[in-house]
Design brief:
This protein is an alpha/beta fold. The protein has one domain: Alpha/Beta hydrolase fold, catalytic domain (Rossmann fold), CATH 3.40.50.1820. It has 12 helices and 8 strands. The longest helix is centred in the C-terminal third of the chain and has 17 residues. It is globular, with a radius of gyration of 19 Å.
Length: 319
């Protein structure tokens, strides 16, 4: 009986998060920027972390991936602030602690939101680091506002290939119905098979947050937004514009990364032909003028979690 009660309590703990993560503690104080998008009043959450020591006068902004928020950047923030950087860490609209409106999601709108955030903070120049979906956003931001970007850093960005050319189309409604089926077990399995080469206990915290929202009464709204942002990624490629980037760029790649957006829709033989970052990384680096490529062996989709020491050294060395 005691074991059963413990299991029930553990299950409830896994399913107790709100869709704006009010009950998830972020590593630094969170502030909110009010925005109006498509006639809706929304709030964009962000952390503005000051240098831990002597300020060097430079700013880094961190763009998270699709299944994450600002909470997973802790070690990167600490490494940067320790070296005098001011670090801005937004949760994009639709993610993390930010509002979850029903709008037309676009990387252009995200870029504009972040430009507005930086303006509100009086910041004129930034280094941009984008991971996964955040890499697509970082690319769009750099293309739209090249005068603001000192350097572009891409950590295992998705969108290195055009998913429309080989992933079958599904409607937002179909994606919504799929998202509604999300469970703790399905999230953990996805993270285990898609993000890391070898599972470690500390990764369970990512699953706890990623799956915790499924127990919220508002989870249908979260699922709808997840479907709309999947549609955004699918329909708004950036891979054809890498040659237009005009700022110094560094591409960080986990060589065992095999991420494909919509992978579950593909037959195994098609999966094997795509998402091969050991190939996509060098190919993409050649498309971006003057791009530097840094690769990590025995590493999947999230280098700053899987090989943190190697990643942080490479990051700091290339700032």
């Amino acid at each position: 009986m005691i074991l059963v009660i413990a299991v029930i309590r553990m299950s409830l703990a896994q399913d107790s998060l709100s869709i704006t993560l009010e009950n998830v503690k972020y590593p630094y104080p969170v502030q909110f920027l009010p925005l109006k998008i498509e006639g809706q009043d929304v709030r964009m959450a962000y952390m503005d972390v000051k240098p831990a020591g002597v300020a060097n006068g430079r700013v880094v902004i961190l763009f998270h991936g699709k299944n994450f928020g600002g909470y997973y950047w802790t070690n990167v923030i600490k490494a940067l602030t320790a070296r005098g950087y001011r670090v801005i860490v937004p949760d994009q609209i639709g993610f993390g602690k930010s509002s979850k409106p029903f709008i037309h999601y676009s990387f252009h709108q995200f870029a504009r939101n972040n430009h507005q955030l930086l303006d509100s903070l009086g910041i004129k120049k930034v280094t941009v680091l984008g991971h996964s979906m955040g890499g697509m956003l970082a690319t769009r931001f750099t293309l739209m506002y090249p005068e603001m970007v000192e350097k572009l850093l891409l950590e295992d960005p998705i969108g290195l290939e055009d998913y429309r050319t080989f992933v079958p189309y599904t409607s937002a409604e179909q994606d919504y119905q799929t998202e509604l089926k999300t469970t703790y077990q399905s999230v953990k399995k996805y993270y285990q098979t898609s993000y890391f080469t070898q599972w470690k206990p500390q990764y369970d915290e990512l699953v706890r947050i990623g799956a915790g929202v499924t127990g919220s009464a508002d989870f249908p709204r979260y699922a709808k937004v997840a479907a709309l942002t999947f549609e955004m990624i699918y329909e708004q490629p950036v891979c054809y514009e890498f040659g237009l980037i005009k700022v110094p760029t560094v591409l960080f790649i986990g060589k065992q990364d095999k991420t494909i957006v919509g992978k579950a829709l593909l037959k195994p033989e098609v999966q094997a032909q795509h998402g091969q970052y050991a190939i996509l990384g060098p190919e993409t680096a050649k498309k971006i003028p003057g791009c530097k490529l840094i690769e990590f062996d025995n590493c999947g989709h999230i280098p700053h979690w899987e090989v943190p020491e190697l990643f942080l050294k490479a990051l700091v060395d290339n700032l």
